[in-house]
Specification:
Blueprint: E1 7-22, E2 28-44, E3 48-52, H1 59-66, E4 74-79, E5 82-83, H2 89-96, E6 99-102, H3 116-126, H4 133-145, H5 162-174, E7 180-184, H6 192-209, E8 212-216, H7 220-226, E9 229-234, E10 237-243, H8 244-250, H9 254-261, H10 268-273, E11 314-317, E12 320-322
Parallel strand pairs: 3-8, 3-9, 6-7, 7-8
Antiparallel strand pairs: 1-2, 1-4, 4-5, 9-10, 10-12, 11-12
Helix pairs in contact: 3-4, 5-6
């Protein structure tokens, strides 16, 4: 993907802070958890942007805030030319039909008291799409689209395996013919043998329906497989964003380099000769991030400026963005 492609989503300086209160009766605001702290990126139409990082880095919060499931603390979110942060009520509900989400846990995101037919019919009813016989035909079509038998419409979620439940979640996300789908770690709770099947299904649906994905995951190998570009998050900030192969082969941020050095390699000789970067310490608390660069407490290359100034997030090469004072040293 390149800048000539049509921009579907643009996120500018997005922040999402969760307030910390002290006291039971007279609650006092004593601080904030900076889950997402000044994040900017674009997603081009028809592409898959992979979003990776450690647990607690803010990946899921980015996805949910982008869809206005969480209210942003600051920043702008543009869907095509529409500013989502200014929309309310019915206008927001209409445009939400074009933006859907596949949640991480297929066991928790499906109502156990509803049949599969009712689950897939719900978004159609809420948005007033398809009624009567057309609605039933649409539900059957959705099940076929994700590789399930339409005769399963009267079954309940507990009658399906984890992989089948995630297929139902995918079908629900596609019910309203969306343009954008946020995939929030859709394979992390599945058996390894099923993960590839679900990823292949997502790729097939993308090509068939012209979908655009924000793919959030921990599995770096899988993200490289499915993504066109990758963004790396650390403690609420995007530290690097580039083409997937550029990230893997020529990453310019020390944190990204450490992540890439941990990816398993099929060639044992290459794996032995590769330099492994071991990060010391734990990720700091998002309620009290360090002064300067967020990564300075664990960075093996940190210098005095890293503890004083937050590095600018800048385009160091065409399409390659990085937030590091010394990124040029890795070119």
């Amino acid at each position: 993907m390149n800048n000539a492609a049509k921009t579907l989503v643009r996120v500018d300086n997005l922040k999402k802070y969760f307030p910390i209160y002290q006291g039971v009766i007279l609650q006092q605001h004593v601080g904030d958890i900076k889950a997402v702290d000044d994040v900017s990126f674009v997603i081009y139409q028809g592409e898959t942007l992979g979003l990776v990082g450690e647990t607690g880095s803010g990946k899921t919060t980015v996805g949910r805030t982008m869809l206005r499931l969480y209210e942003p603390t600051a920043g702008k979110i543009f869907f095509e030319d529409t500013d989502l942060t200014e929309m309310q009520g019915g206008d927001l509900r209409k445009i939400r039909a074009r933006m859907q989400m596949i949640f991480q846990d297929p066991y928790a995101s499906l109502n156990p008291r509803m049949t599969v037919g009712s689950i897939l019919s719900a978004p159609l009813e809420v948005h007033g799409y398809w009624k009567g016989r057309e609605k039933r035909e649409r539900v059957d079509n959705l099940l076929e689209m994700v590789g399930l038998n339409p005769d399963f419409v009267n079954r309940y979620p507990h009658e399906f395996s984890g992989g089948q439940r995630q297929r139902i979640c995918i079908a629900r996300a596609l019910a309203l013919n969306p343009d954008l789908v946020v995939c929030d770690e859709p394979i992390s709770s599945l058996d390894v043998s099923i993960q590839a099947q679900v990823v292949n299904l997502l790729e097939e649906l993308q090509h068939k329906l012209g979908l655009t994905y924000l793919f959030i995951a921990h599995d770096l190998s899988m993200v490289r497989h499915i993504s066109d570009r990758m963004a790396v998050m650390y403690l609420g900030k995007i530290v690097e964003l580039a083409d997937r192969n550029e990230i893997y082969l020529r990453s310019l941020h020390p944190y990204t380099q450490a992540l890439m050095s941990a990816v398993p390699m099929p060639d044992p000789d290459a794996a032995r000769s590769r330099k492994r970067i071991i990060l010391e310490g734990d990720i700091p608390s998002p309620a009290n991030p360090p002064k300067g660069c967020n990564f300075n407490t664990r960075c093996p290359f940190a210098k005095e400026i890293c503890f004083e100034q937050d590095p600018d997030y800048r385009e160091i090469k065409p399409g390659h963005w990085v937030a590091c004072h010394f990124a040029e040293d890795f070119l």
